Amino acid sequence: MTDWPWSTRAQASPQGHNLSSVICHFRRSFVIFRIACSAIWSLLLHLSAARSTQPEFIVAPSSLNILFLGSGNSARSIFAEYLIRKLGTGKFTPFSAGINPEQNINPYVVRVLKELYKIDASDARPKSWDEFKDTSLDFIITSSEHAKGQTPPWAWTGNPIIAHWSTPDPEHFSGSEKDTFNHFWKVSQLIYRRVDLLCNLSGEKLDRLRLEHIATQEGAQEFRSPGVQE
């Protein structure tokens, strides 16, 4: 029997049709897969963008109220208040006061803070301790021998820890303008060092013994600052 060419094509036609169907089905599946992948990717990008724009709620520890109590609130307690404002931002809310406040802040205090620490204390003023009788305090640090052990006619609010930092009174110094400035700077350095150590203490170590240990440990040390000469 003769095999005619068209007979061969007729027999091969069903196989070719099946192959075309498979290819077509594969292409259709691939397109659907790509569309699905694109949709999933878009969804992931949207979720990522939404997450990045949502505010993060972080519970920050409340700052501790600390009062530096001096005699006239014109020198050492002012140094401590403004230095801890710079070093203890977010950890401490500082105040200062005096038992018998002076009329004005010592001008050398303002100069030292501005010229050597880049701190503007132009708004500083002597304050009486009775301004803080209703303020809840965590710590009271006395800065003068006169203030040490003084008991006000009221009870401090907040049951504060009380400690004493003994430093020389720079206002008792007598000398030239340069020597007086350098003396105020030396006293400020003693206070700076103590404030720096205080700001680096963990919460559980902020107790009376530790605070007074700082004063005892650093009380006899002096520190130099660039640009200030003897």
Distance between the termini: 127 Å
Specify the biggest β-sheet. Answer: 4 strands, parallel
CATH fourth-tier homologous superfamily of the largest domain: Response regulator
Strand content: 5-15%
Helix content: 40-55%
The CATH architecture term of the largest domain is: 3-Layer(aba) Sandwich
Mean pLDDT, to the nearest integer, reads 80
* Quaternary structure: single chain
CATH fold-level assignment of the largest domain: Rossmann fold
Q: Which structural class do the helices and strands define? A: alpha/beta
Query: How many DSSP-defined strands?
Result: 4
**Structural shape:** elongated
**Pattern of helices and strands:** HEHEHEEHH
Number of helices: 5
Strand order of the largest sheet: 2-1-3-4
Number of domains: 2
Give the radius of gyration. 38 Å
Given as residue ranges, the uncertain stretches (5+ residues, pLDDT < 50) are 1-10, 52-60, 220-230
CATH class of the largest domain: Alpha Beta
